[in-house]
Amino acid sequence: MPVTMAQVAKLAGVSKPVVSKVLHGGGGNTRVGEETRRRVLEAVRQTGYRPSASARAMAQRRSRQVGVLVPNNPGNRFTHPLAYETILGVNEGLQAAGYVVALARIDDVRRDLADQSRVFKEHVLDGMIVLDSMPADVERRLEELIGTVVWCDSNVWREHGCLRRDEREAGRLAGQAAADLGYRRITMMTYAPPHRVHFSALERYEGVRGAVTAAGLELHEALEPGIGEAAARRELVRTLRPDAVIVCNSIYQAHAVRDIANEAGRVPGRDFGLISCDDMHQLDRMWPGLTRVTFDRYQMGVEAAALMRCVLDRGRRACPSVRLPCRLVAGDTARRQPRSAGR
Amino acid sequence: MPVTMAQVAKLAGVSKPVVSKVLHGGGGNTRVGEETRRRVLEAVRQTGYRPSASARAMAQRRSRQVGVLVPNNPGNRFTHPLAYETILGVNEGLQAAGYVVALARIDDVRRDLADQSRVFKEHVLDGMIVLDSMPADVERRLEELIGTVVWCDSNVWREHGCLRRDEREAGRLAGQAAADLGYRRITMMTYAPPHRVHFSALERYEGVRGAVTAAGLELHEALEPGIGEAAARRELVRTLRPDAVIVCNSIYQAHAVRDIANEAGRVPGRDFGLISCDDMHQLDRMWPGLTRVTFDRYQMGVEAAALMRCVLDRGRRACPSVRLPCRLVAGDTARRQPRSAGR
DNA sequence: CTGAAAGCGCTTACAG
DNA sequence: CTGAAAGCGCTTACAG
Q1: CATH superfamily of this structure's domain B65-165+298-325
Q2: Domain with CATH 3.40.50.2300 in chain B
Q3: Distance CA B157, CA B292 (A)
Q4: Which residue of A has its CA nearest to B45?
Q5: Is A199 touching B (CB cutoff 8 A)?
Q6: Sorting pLDDT into bands at 50, 70 and 90, what band is B343?
Q7: pTM, whole model, 2 decimals?
Q8: Torsion angle (degrees, nearest 10) of CA B107, B109, B115, B118
């Protein structure tokens, strides 16, 4: 049997409210005699008392628990691994404020109420941070189930309570770099669109295109070849030339392109240019030289946590949405091209 | 104000215990009249009632909440990204059994009680799944704070309640492959040891060495060059020959080696052999051709969840530790070598 | 099969 | 500055 507050109170020779005040100062009348406080803390120490979160939650009618909803498409149980960086940032930002972070996955929301996760079926969360985009019906459902939602890196974008990287700027930086370095042929890798396109793909594309056409160049497009698509892979290899640069949407795409190139004995930076609109942690070890737009996803998580606290403490209206900046990292997979015509 | 069980009971014209029984059947005397049950469910539907997790937790003295502890070394806030795969598996396995998964990070345990995370400071968890190894003092502390701990992919290994990949076998498979393919010079990449070496590094090394020496070959070793270490990188490149193979410990290391090679215009599979003892999700997109030992980390999470449920339901003694298998994926970064001497 | 009562361990007004 | 009481929303024996 764990130690209870009543036991601590008894040992300290005070009442429960006093113990409660000593442990969770703040609120209006926090004043407790110096001597009393000492006795209470000593009793806590002696007994090894640890409060019961559920009792507190019940009395206060708030769990001090925030959920993080991660995407989990049926058919791909492990979508969007980069979300983990953000999750850890969220954890840092929330736990520092006394919140516990609970994990939830998108499938949970879609199932019928009967076999839903407790995160949705019961009242467990004070709020939910949604990472990445969700199907529209899920988004609607969420706001009913959980009062307080913060949308992070999601297609949902409103005046308040949302958070995003400036994806258009990411695209612009990548496109600008391609043009500035003097590449003649700029190709952006695109995806075959899934059910619903993530806003970042559109924004990045617009950003790249804007910068490239502003430089008076044409933007080519190419679909990322699948693993088994030998013909498409060969086709891609054919476009790889020293004065051609591939602009990738994601880091996975960049890896895939390097792999396809390597397979044909080609190396980025030497045989063709390669720029990624996105980044990932550990890249400094895996591929430090990749020319890319970098962005601190962990920090995004920390900011999402701050936004959630704002919404929880001061209401949604008080918390304007945030757009986070990004910057270019010059690497060696895209290099300055020799001037073509006489200077 | 959320709907309460009392309101549901009133609307259905029954008492609270009846509602409780209808909603959470099981236990001894679950029998409720068919008509009564119908009325209750109808009332639940009409009111949109959702139980309060904390009230239930308090009455039952269990939170139905399990923590996942992830490593988070000071100085590297984002250690071990692969853990995310396991976390999602844990989530799947536990939420299906009605548990909520909470995240915790190692730093939380080390700090003084005063500013610890609530996950440790209060009673919030029924149990904790530890992913990866923790400093020894943390491990000791954990068992005091949380009664029920499951060790997953950790240096802690006992008769009961632990879970690991068979790392020795992973090394053996990699070493065996290197030898079988006919490479003359086999080099294993090692790390400069950190504070405390993860068991997998030792086991993999032993596995590789066993297989290589059994084949009558010598196992060379090399330290993974850091990013700035130009001399070491050149040195590594010098050892790259068509009849030489590099065996990497981790997937990050494999990427790093490929990067160093590419920098010098070398390509794995053509100019030298490359085998990884480890794998990661999304590799099928990033680097499908890498010859490697594969292992389903997500599944490990699912199994860790099962182990936790076992420990929670039937006690530690009833749950023997588990060692998970792995297998080789033949890729194209390591190829069969031409026979040297006459056949 | 169903209901009334007690209790889980806290916090929050409310008196002193 | 401190204590006694009521209440948070459930579940668990215990009677009927």
Answers
A1: Response regulator (3.40.50.2300)
A2: 65-165+298-325, 167-294+328-341
A3: 26
A4: A113
A5: no
A6: very low
A7: 0.92
A8: 110
